[in-house]
Amino acid sequence: MSRRVRRRIPRLKLSYVVVAQAMLLPSANVFAACTTTGSATVCDANAPNPWTMRVGAGNVAAEDNRSVDVQSGGKIAVGNSNAISLRDNANVHVANGGSVSATAVNTAGQYNTGGNTIEFRNNGVLTVDQGGEVLAKGTQRNAEAVNLQGSGNTITNNGTIKADNAAAIWFENTSGLNTIVNNETGVIQAPGNVIGFSGNGSVDFTNKGMVIGNLVFAGGNDTLRLYTGSTITSNFSGGAGNDTIFLSGNGQASLPGNMVGFEALIKNDPGTWTLTGTITGVTVSTVQQGTLALTGNNSNYTGQVIVDPAGTLEARAQSLPPTVTNNGLLRFVQPDAGSYTGLISGTPAPSRRPGPARLRWRPPLPAAIPIWAERVSTRAASRSVPTTCLALPTVV
After folding, report:
1. How far is Cα 319 from Cα 296, in angstroms, rounded to an integer?
2. Pairing of β 223-227 and β 244-248
3. At the N or C end, where does the chain have fewer CB atoms within 10 A?
4. Spatial strand order in the sheet of 169-171
5. Pairing, β 34-37 against β 40-43
């Protein structure tokens, strides 16, 4: 009997193992909302949905070159944890109808930077489609919707990136560049500052959509690209560093002239941007293309204003800065009488010279200094003589 028992025990163990594998493996493949094959994870709308476990282990080599695709109807919704935590060369996509959220309270997270909903380190890509969402729903103040631990990353948002009690996007890097493109249907929202920094890394931020909250940069050399049709509901500032603001797009838009923390302003693209207040902060303003219109009092502006051949600077005489280098079109739009005292120099392109019109200069200009004018504007070329322009409200 003992020999029969010894022979039968291994057979029972083998039978148990085989049966257990047969029972477990189909369950993992068929019913999982998030399925990982190699380095790729796909989260769909199958049960269990939402998926409530973290995807990725954070700052370890196994999380390099990972991809996560949250498909339409797929949801990752975790509690006091990161939802997606990867490392270098990550590629995360949230489709229309897809959702990734975390409700963090007090966790350190995989990088010890809080319960961020999505986080990765260097050279990663996050794409949120229109109708997709990345949400930080918890009370933890350092648990952002997206936390970029390094540099070389790009976020393209056509959906919603939102934090209830933290910044929407945080940058941990102390050097290098990260890029954010918030497209026309994109919303980035936070109760205070929508972005935050642990160091002085640089950011290139394009806004074509809506930013709900403050947009305040830190100490890097940052770039803000604002497009006509975009919205920032609160304040924006370039912070420290050497920062540039681009006014881009077609159509028309306006901004106050107070560019806090930005050292350079560049007007590009065919559209028209109007600065409604006094220009402050910016030391160099360049009109590369389209029209930059000024309506505030800029008589005390000490920076450079440069109009390139394809650009137009438009202002009342009272709004024009005292020094302008005009190689394009300088247009006086004068609904009332006003005077301008300043220095206008440059060489406008002959192809853009308008026909005769109605500006009078006091004292009269020397014959060697040509002036081209429109009905309500003037074109000054190669002028280096300070003078006063009296712009009349009627054509003469």
Report:
1. 5
2. parallel
3. N
4. 84-85, 118-120, 146-148, 169-171, 195-197
5. antiparallel
- Distance CA(393)–CA(58), nearest Å, equals 67
The yes-or-no verdict on residue 30 having pLDDT over 60 is no
Tell me how far apart the alpha carbons of residues 304 and 237 are, in angstroms, rounded to a whole number. Answer: 20
Q: Where are the beta strands (DSSP E) in 183-336?
A: 187-193, 195-197, 202-207, 210-216, 223-227, 231-232, 236-237, 244-248, 252-255, 264-267, 272-275, 284-287, 290-294, 304-307, 311-315, 323-326, 329-332
The amino acid at 307: V
Q: In 3-state terms, what secondary structure has residue 17?
A: helix
Write down the pLDDT at residue 349: 57
Read off the pTM: 0.85
Average per-residue pLDDT for the chain: 84
Could you tell me which residues are beta bridge partners of residue 205? 180, 224
Q: Are 264 and 245 in contact (CB under 8 A)?
A: yes
pLDDT of residue 26: 32
E-strand ranges in 62-109 read 67-70, 75-78, 84-85, 91-94, 99-102
pLDDT tens readout for residues 266-322: 999 999 999 998 998 899 999 999 999 999 999 889 999 999 999 999 998 889 999
Residue 363 confidence (pLDDT)? 53
With beta carbons less than 8 A apart as the criterion, state whether 83 and 58 touch. Answer: no
CA atoms within 13 A on the CB side of 21: 5
